[in-house]
Amino acid sequence: MKILILGADGYLGWSMAASLSEDNHELILVDNYSKRKYMKELNRTPLCKMPLVTTRIKILKRLNKNISFYEIDCMSYKKMKSIIKKHKPDAIIHFAELPSAPFSMLNNKYGWDTLHNNLQSTFNLLHCIKDIVPDCHIIKLGTMGEYGTPNIDIEEGWINIRHKNRKDKFLFPRQGSSLYHMSKIMDTDLIWFYVRNYGLNVTDLMQGPVYGIYYDDKHKNDELVPTFTYDDIFGTVLNRFIVQAVVGTPLTVYGSGSQTRGYINVVDTIKCIKLTLENKPKNGELAIYNQFTEQFTVNELANLVKKSLARIDIFAKIKKVSNPRIEKEKHYYNAKHSNIKKLGLKPLKLDKNIIIDIAEYVSRHKNNINTKIIQPRVNW
Amino acid sequence: MKILILGADGYLGWSMAASLSEDNHELILVDNYSKRKYMKELNRTPLCKMPLVTTRIKILKRLNKNISFYEIDCMSYKKMKSIIKKHKPDAIIHFAELPSAPFSMLNNKYGWDTLHNNLQSTFNLLHCIKDIVPDCHIIKLGTMGEYGTPNIDIEEGWINIRHKNRKDKFLFPRQGSSLYHMSKIMDTDLIWFYVRNYGLNVTDLMQGPVYGIYYDDKHKNDELVPTFTYDDIFGTVLNRFIVQAVVGTPLTVYGSGSQTRGYINVVDTIKCIKLTLENKPKNGELAIYNQFTEQFTVNELANLVKKSLARIDIFAKIKKVSNPRIEKEKHYYNAKHSNIKKLGLKPLKLDKNIIIDIAEYVSRHKNNINTKIIQPRVNW
User: Fold this and answer.
1) CATH number of domain containing A116
2) Does B374 reside within a domain?
3) Cα distances (Å, whole numbers) of residue A124 to A3, A134, A229, B358
4) Total number of domains in chain A
5) What is the mean pLDDT of residues B182-203?
6) How far off is chain B from A283, nearest CA to CA, in Å?
7) A304-356 pLDDT, tens digit each
8) How far apart are the C-alpha atoms of B116 and B74, rounded to whole Å?
9) Separation CA B110–CA B127 (nearest Å)
10) Nearest CA distance, A132 vs chain B (angstrom)
11) Distance between CA atoms of A162 and B125, rounded to whole angstroms?
């Protein structure tokens, strides 16, 4: 297949590229390095310094010569058009979005940058696909955070509503808790607009917070590890807890810690996307999957990290800090996630070994950890 | 009251300013004339040449000295901030949006301009209000088109959903039929985000297509008539039909003509907004009103124009043309609109006299009509 990956420098984009390069695909990678620029602006550094894609791509090329990279901003309609016209991909995996809730809530500028970048890149993509390769399969990363924490069961993307003796099917109601989440909701609305009006075929993945280092749990190759962030702005919770444990500072639980979310290992994220690549929706169909494997409260995660790492003599403390976010701490949460299993995913359960594995990688780079960037500083 | 009107050069913005200037308010008017620029770019002209706000404001100042105007682009956060900081308004009426579905569907550029202008101006407004005058009442023009044509009754903004023995209240599901409508949906989502997180108080008016000339049916003052468009891109259907009848070309019905919508006279639009000005929601409350007074099919409107104008010896023909839009022509449509009546609106029913009134105004400017800009040219 000819696959275009937008946002190939990122945590998931790079893991995806590395994994797909093992198969016999032609890969076209795109990134504008904007997340790097924002991280630099905010003095946030990843655990390990990441070479640019132009350098890292050489490792992939040992296996697969058919990989190219373009430094392109997806907010440019002209550039997006030229790359799609030139390569006419069979599938496009769209990760080219600013990924952080705290970043989007830092100030007016970053809030608007998040809305603007995410909506315009998605708009450009959809508009170009409609005009140039309408059969191309778009796979888009959404987030479980689009749904918020409603008081009813969260279905997979859609809901049938019966109302006053009539019925219709709608996108499941969405209400995000940050401007980042709002940008993803707008993306979904725009995608469904293009799908129903122009018969595009799109898979939209409502992903839970991801954790992990290696995209492949069989071959744990440090050379191919993606950008691993653990700071207050760009880090996700489980990765951050493990870094805190390794460096000997308490795991900071925001608020009561009873916030429940659906989580997923990066290994499973990559498997899910590969499964959806093989299962293209019909034209005019928007397939939505809730892409997580297990639900945890934040307290459960913290305790699991603590218990697991005690096995390798890392004795973590847990500390509750006042919640920097506006979010419900006590809430109902029951989200469906069976569609991806129907495609064949055998979920990887979060266990001690996985946590120890991540901690050992982090320990090898312990000297790089900057404890000053972990405490939450963005309040909303 | 100190009232800021964003988009004061437009059809509704100007009518609002004119009407409010009769009462004892301080008015701050803002526009960047962008709609004029786009109309010029597309060779679309209104029925009468409109002087700039700086000129027209002199008429209002005969009654009320307390009116100022700023030529400001609401997409500039800095300028939005400075105007709100300077005037600290009690209420803001936000019309500063690109208003046309066909315009948004013309090409990639106008599509993105519509999404971008509408979302960023709303974002800037909400963010400034949160930071500077969180008690200020925002009144925002949405559109009935946000709901689309669902197979269930359209409620006023919200819906209670019972699902698997649990229940919650959500924004009524929305699915627009153009990028313009999508931009309004995104606005509503963003407004609700700011209201629930920061306790702002906002009234969001889901307005149906408007018709009419005078904002006040008692004092029909030609000097204060707003920009009246009748072309394929910026004109609304009833105004367009009347112009077609006056100039002796057939009324062009798109498709079968059974598309049903809720319509409103500009007189009632202005009354509605004045009623909501007097009924500020509580902090943290988003009040949504479906702002239309009567439902018609397009065929009913065409026939009503035909029948009414025969009285003044204008004999119109009706011609069906193939529908340039992707929209359901046969569909269920039953939209609630009782909230605004509860506030006290006595709706003006569309009748022969109203149609004749508009036709007489149009006839006085018959020489200005450009028949070349009426046929639909934007297909989607």
Assistant:
1) 3.40.50.720
2) no
3) 17, 13, 28, 42
4) 1
5) 98
6) 17
7) 999 999 999 999 999 999 999 989 989 999 999 999 999 999 999 999 999 99
8) 11
9) 25
10) 13
11) 36
For tokens 């909303």, the residue is A380
**Torsion, Cα of B120, B126, B130, B135 (10° steps):** 160
- Identify whether A174 is part of a domain: yes
Contact check, Cβ <8 Å, A115/B123: yes
Q: Is residue B302 part of a domain?
A: no
Contacts of B130 (CB under 8 A, 6+ apart): B194, B198, B200
Tell me the residue ranges of DSSP E strands in chain B: 2-6, 26-31, 67-71, 91-94, 137-143, 158-163, 166-171, 201-207, 210-211, 251-254, 260-265, 286-291, 294-297, 318-321
ipTM of the complex: 0.96
Taking only the tens place, the pLDDT of each residue in A11-61 is 999 999 999 999 999 999 999 999 999 999 999 999 999 999 999 999 999
B281-285 contacts at long range (C-beta below 8 A, 24 or more positions apart): B281/B137, B281/B201, B281/B202, B281/B203, B282/B201, B283/B134, B283/B135, B283/B199, B283/B200, B283/B201, B284/B195, B284/B196, B284/B199, B284/B200, B284/B201, B285/B195, B285/B201, B285/B202
Counting every residue written for chain A, the total comes to 380
**Domain-embedded: residue B235:** no
Of B116, B170, B190, the CB nearest to A173: B170
Whether the predicted model's global pTM rises above the 0.90 cut: yes
Q: pLDDT grade, residue A378 (50/70/90)?
A: confident
Q: Which residue of B has its CA nearest to A147?
A: B170
Q: Which of B112, B159, B193 sits opposite A120 (nearest CB)?
A: B112
In terms of residue numbers, what domain contains A23? 2-373
CB A66 within 8 A of CB A1: no
- Please give the helix or strand (H or E) that residue A99 lies within, else none: none
Give CA A68 to chain center in angstroms.
23
The Cα angle at residue B257 between residues B143 and B238, in degrees rounded to 5:
55
